[in-house]
Predict the structure.
Amino acid sequence: MNDAGPGAGSTQTWQDEVTRDLLNLGGRLALLVRGEGSHVWDADGTRYLDFLGGIAVNALGHAHPVFVEAVSRQAAILAHVSNYFATPQQLELAARLKRLAGTGEHGHVFFANSGSEANETAIKLARLHGRKTGKTTIVSLNGAFHGRTMGSLSLTPKPAYQDPFRPLLPGVAHIDPTLEALEAAIDDTVAALVVEPIQGEAGVVPLPDGFLRRARELTTAHGALLIVDEVQTGVGRTGEWFAFQREGILPDAMSLAKGIAAGFPLGALVTFGDSDLFYPGTHNSTFGGNPLATSVGSAVLTEIETSGLLANVNERGAQLRAAVAGMPLVTGTRGAGLLIGVTLSALVAAEVRDAAQRRGLIVNAPTSDVIRLAPAYTIGDAEVDEFTSVFAAALAEVAASSPRSEADRSGTDPKDHA
Ligand SMILES: *Cc1c(COP(=O)(O)O)cnc(C)c1O
């Protein structure tokens, strides 16, 4: 590797290597080399508190002993066999996901390697259902993020993401995430409605009250599938195993990825019934569900269960929301558990993110006025305290450098700006 530090003799920096060797898609915030618990270190030895968690992926933090043991043990036994064969690891994880999701006996699981791939599977399920019932349309919501592959991108109505890649998948409609738009859109032509319980990339925006329950009623009445994308919200992130469980409904299918194997690539589509639609030859994935990935998935579920991590997610989430209330520039918080959107009074989220990083805290800015927090489920008092002091200082720094936006904020106590 070339020198990563400034002025240390080499003419080439890691940023130069990024430019030379990687597609021009970003990835320049830091050169990270090591992680432990909720901290990561860059190549210069600077330590950061990681409150992004690899975008809601590192549920157990970094280098958790359970993760390390699961990867090493299974790598030494059997890592990959292809989907011509079954493995005990795959069967165990499928049965556990069905149980946790409450699919009942008709549930089935397909394993993939990413959220996009899980959603591609959901789209194919919707097409198979549409074929059987004579329906064509798949409905998704404005503000949604379902992935970057061509199918999942077609359900992600953001012009900056979609426009360079038209034409997209035909037969997709987008509606506003409101009860009125939902009532108007779901009719007998709809094969499936695909929704995130909380729109993570849109800035941690929950669905309106009652939306999922009404979506369940309408899709059932019109013979459409209700598919929930829990790639970001699933597997404990919101303090429930799955966010749909807060609403007392069952979907027809649910996509998972991100936190499911806490950093090992794994995705899944869990179906709740009617999954006789797939038959051999209709779908598969070479790597999907290999014994290495699925053994890590099971180890993560066991750790969440046996260490009481769902309770910790709820408790620490409440603590964090209370801690940021009243900080400079902060107008409120959204989300559930440890998926938190901190809303700001000005379009300065990128500045706040950068100020935080300079002070040794990694957070992210999904939109220009929202900071997203998605730390490990394992955080304790020490991490909450460290976050609170560094985040407040970063906000104060940005507030001081943009006095006009700060003046917009009512009820500001000058001592917040110390
Ligand atoms: C991240 C994300 C995806 C895409 O997952 P990838 O693993 O990046 O393909 C899909 N849906 C939601 C809700 C996500 O947050």
Observations:
- The longest strand covers residues 330-336.
- Residues 405-418 have pLDDT under 50 and may be disordered.
- The pocket of pyridoxal-5'-phosphate is lined by residues 114-116, 119, 145-147, 196, 200-201, 229, 231-232, 257-258 (CB under 6 Å).
